[in-house]
TrEMBL record:
SUPFAM superfamilies (UniProt xref): EF-G C-terminal domain-like, P-loop containing nucleoside triphosphate hydrolases, Translation proteins
Gene of this entry: prfC
Keywords, alphabetical: Cytoplasm, GTP-binding, Nucleotide-binding, Protein biosynthesis
Transmembrane parts of this sequence: none
Protein name per Swiss-Prot or TrEMBL: Peptide chain release factor 3
Lineage, top ranks: Bacteria, Bacillati, Bacillota, Bacilli, Lactobacillales
Amino acid sequence: MNRMNLKQAVAKRRTFAIISHPDAGKTTITEQLLLYSGAIRQAGTVKGKKSGKFAKSDWMKIEQQRGISVTSSVMQVDYDGYQINLVDTPGHEDFSEDTYRTLMAVDAAVMVIDSGKGIEPQTKKLFQVCRMRGIPIFTFMNKLDRDGREPMDLVAELEEVLAIDAYAMNWPMGMGKQFLGLYDFYNNRVELTHPEENGDNDFLPLNEAGEVEGDYKFKESSIYTEALENAELMREAGNDFDKEAIAAGELTPVFFGSALTGFGVQTFLDAFVDFAPAPSAVDTVDEGEEVEPTDTELTGFIFKIQANMDPRHRDRIAFVRIVSGTFEEGMDVKVTRTDKKIKLNNTTRFMADSRENVEKAVAGDIIGLYDTGNFQIGDTIYTGKKAVAFPPLPQFTPELFMKVSPKNVMKQKSFHKGMQQLVQEGAIQLYRTWHSEEYIIGAVGQLQFEVFQYRLLNEYNSEVDMSPMGNKIARWISEEELDPKMSSSRNLLCKDIHGNPVFLFENTFAVNWFQGKYPDVHLETLL
Ligand code: G4P
């Protein structure tokens, strides 16, 4: 692909993730997106809880048994001329690092909030990672077809709890049974849930005074006049619309609607593809050097490795976010870490209900590479003459720890193999006690342990004993400052996978006590 075509193709890419608390409506809104893009014909295809059918995002058996989505999946669809790459984040209350890392591969996030509940814990955690990256965040206040909380309260809570400015792009006229529609400032129109004229005129323009002209029944309702007043108030007292602040992730545009009935979803998506950024330049480890998406040499990084997605083919797939250039089936790339040349064959792209071979993909797209052990999380691949390395993906400080050992000492080998593989995939973090070298695994969510145990048994035939150590506060210390005598039962000294010393503190009290005793020692966290 020449540079001109590449530029056009990249400008049409929108790569994003949906963040939300479980049950806020992420799956339902994904379905609407797939419906509008023509990728599916019927709702209920993504997660057919009732029919017992599972879409490809529920790959692992453990997920099917529990009816949850543990691993993140990727879908590419065409929406209104845009190539949308939607990276799924697990819809479970339990976190995994996988969820966080997924957010490293996207250019924007859509935050779905249940208007009956407001900001919930998981949304807050995911939001913080988006904030740290400075990516734009679009808010969809969902479930307006039900009676929920006052829109003003919801927006105020959003601003307060998440410490971000909000700008309402539209305003609901009523809710629940009395949901008349949206008073849409951005598009200068009213969108009706129940069109009055011959059933097809659901958009009515606003005049200069911001009102709908003509005789309509809904105008007689106090709900309409109230919405007008609130809209006025928002315009006068609220934040200004500021495209740059949106792009920097400092202002979130807020949309109201109902994913279930599909009302307001298209209005939201249309604005989203307009405002959400196309792929942009990414920094490399070389100071001051960045890679532009329109550079013709291919570069990309691996943000996720997933083994055995399909039990019939015992495969392992490395997910690559393409940062620049064009991918073509059969091309040779180099892995920066190992300097090894690899031919990319049999590359996969993920659709709503199938996988298909990719022949071409460009910056912004996400492709899956069949992996036979060549890749690690955070690896850079490139085709140019000069080696490129993107910064390592952030590691997240685990909060939960378990001691782990193989049940059958005769099966040490498969235990070690499985452990090495799962650590390489980033499924779990591995530590050892400083002196006795006992294995300790760390996670940010309980479910990571269950998946670890399940996979060791099912994929490596290794049964393990796990003994919970509970919540710990992990703090790193430099070798120079370390004195092994500092270790006690309240701050167990361990080493991480690179051999760096780390203390596992019992609680914040223990951290404070330690800092009081050794005021000159620096303790560090990951993210
Ligand atoms: P999630 O992926 O964020 O976990 O949420 P999901 O879309 O699965 O939605 C959770 C529940 O909320 C589902 O109901 C879904 O139908 C409902 N829901 C989603 N959006 C809306 C909305 O706009 N209005 C209303 N009233 N409900 C909505 P469920 O009964 O738990 O699941 P199901 O058995 O219907 O699949």
